[in-house]
Amino acid sequence: MVRSAAEMLACFFMSAIIASNSVQWPTMIIRIMGDPHNNLDMEEDGYWLSQADVALCTGDFAYHITGRERSLSRKVMEFLRDCGVYTILGNHDGINHRPSVNYGPAETEPGCQTEMVETLGDYYMGYQCVDLENLSLVGGRPFSNGNSGIQHKPFGYRDITVEESAQKIVSLMEAAAHDNIIFLSHNGPKGMGEDRDSMCGRDWKQPAMDWGDEDLALALNHVPEGKNIVALVMGHMHHHLRGGGWRRRMAFYKGYPVVNAAVVPRIVRKGVITTRNITGEFKEKKIFQTHHHFLELELEGNRLKEVRDLWVCKGNRNSLGTKMLIWRESIHGWGQREKSTE
User: Fold this and answer.
1) pTM above threshold 0.85
2) Minimal CB count within 10 Å: which of 80, 99, 138, 184?
3) Residues 269-305: pLDDT tens digits?
């Protein structure tokens, strides 16, 4: 049988469609170190961070920055820079918070902030955009403490307002070379719930309330046309709640996935490790050796496929670690987008 030119052309296009549907997109692993708060082992953590395609950190390296800890923070910044870890700084970085000394309200230490920012160099993500091979990283306002207004003015932006900060974030997204963006912020946006276990819920003081960032919420309401936030990575809000219970670790804001890396303490020497997935189910595992925590995002192409906790046993580099699922596209789908906080 001799096929007509039209039939041959149709077969050609059908073959092309089948081939395009069977393309295996490359997998990317983004590994995140949540708020360390003095729980950091440079040798061990450096190894695991270096094994990822992209490494991030959500800030808060100590509980206060004075004397010895300021010197230690400098060494930590050098470590992160040398390991290629893109880092946002948190409310405890360059801020005097020590409760046992009468410092009065939390005070910004400009000299310390400057030193940390300069030491991180190209890996400092406060109000920055970095274009990688297939996607862009955008960093929000550094030194965020949450709640209304801007309590801790960031280095170089002492007079910035909520509206100006939001516009700066929008401008960074506009300037990104790629349409797909991973957003790194110390805190999450306001508008994700007022309960103590909400993504940005205040649990350390009554009454419970929304402690999210106003400027970040405003910026996310004006994401430039054509840009897509693959995931917004935050910290600040510790997973274990004051008074007991566990925080939600993932939700959707305006349809964008928001994930919280702040498992504190992130180094557990013996006991039980716990993960709460997006549907509220819990998984626990007893450990009898020192384990380090990371949050992992798995991307296929530029699409988020899975979010999970990774616990690695110190000194055991032959193991892939214990992976505890928070969200997987093939299981949970994108139905939660319909329940995004408005």
Assistant:
1) yes
2) 99
3) 999 999 999 999 999 999 999 999 999 999 998 899 9
Percent of the chain that is helix, strand, coil (3-state, to 5): 25, 30, 45
CA distance 79 to 205: 35
CATH number for the domain that contains residue 208: 3.60.21.10
Phi, psi of 237 (to 5 degrees): -90, 100
Distances (CA, A) of 235 to 33, 34, 321, 322: 9, 6, 22, 21
pLDDT at 92: 85
- Phi-psi bin for 149: left (phi > 0), alpha (psi -120 to 50), beta? left
- Is 268 inside a domain boundary? yes
d(CA 271, CA 44): 20
Asked, as a colleague might, if the bond just before 189 is cis with ω within 30 of 0, I would say no
Phi/psi at 21 (5° precision): -75, -20
The answer to whether position 18 is within a domain reads no
